[in-house]
Amino acid sequence: MTERERQNGSVALAVREFSAWYGENQVLRAVTMDIPQHQVTAIIGPSGCGKSTLIRAMNRMNDLIPGFRAQGTILFHGRNIYDPKVDPVEIRRRIGMVFQKPNPFPKSIFENVAFGLRVNGFRGNLRERVEWALRRAALWEEVKEDLHRKSGYDLSGGQQQRLCIARALAVEPEILLMDEPCSALDPVATAKIEDLIRELSSSVTIVLVTHNMQQAARVSDCTAFLLLGELVEFGPTREVFTRPRDPRTEAYITGRFG
Prior knowledge:
Blueprint: H1 3-7, E1 11-22, E2 25-36, E3 40-44, H2 51-57, E4 68-76, E5 79-80, H3 88-94, E6 95-98, H4 109-119, H5 126-136, H6 140-143, H7 157-170, E7 175-179, H8 187-200, E8 205-209, H9 213-219, E9 222-227, E10 230-236, H10 237-242, H11 247-253
Helix pairs in contact: 4-5, 4-7, 5-7, 7-8
């Protein structure tokens, strides 16, 4: 039995009746879904459907937005991450995030990856951990000679995104949230990120927001379709794309709207 097969049935995050608002504008409506452990879950849907709000709710990034409020629960190891006693900084360490546009820091490649480790008081061998993270992000061979000489800004767009992935991986999150990580990249860089996503999913749970349905079909194990803040359909990707249960899902996938 493979590691993926052993993990089937395990839930990394349990979203229960989760609703969200920005001021008076409701953007999520009683979403309930289980994110399976050590798999790739894609979230698809037209612009404005609530995809980014949902993924950012999974590590409380929305807390930083004025006027945001939420109702319902998101359970991580059986505990609601919105419990007032839960430290959102700790949640963001354990549930990392990669954004749509690569956001390297104006520091060396080494210091970009080491940043989160320093903030979290890492006491191990910093150089070994940086190398480990860059290898996991499939970037080490390309930058190993320039760790201290080049800034993160000196890398190509695809390399910058892999650098940001390495930075997120360095603190060993259990879950990695990716919000349109390939939207600003060319096809070659996109293919590298997709290969990386598949490789990482053997040890890290990945939740991927994407507008690209072909990408969702290529890399994900499960797919969630959101429409106007409602979870219309959620299931194994092959079934969602070939035998959708809801006619709205079929209409979106076949390009009749969205």
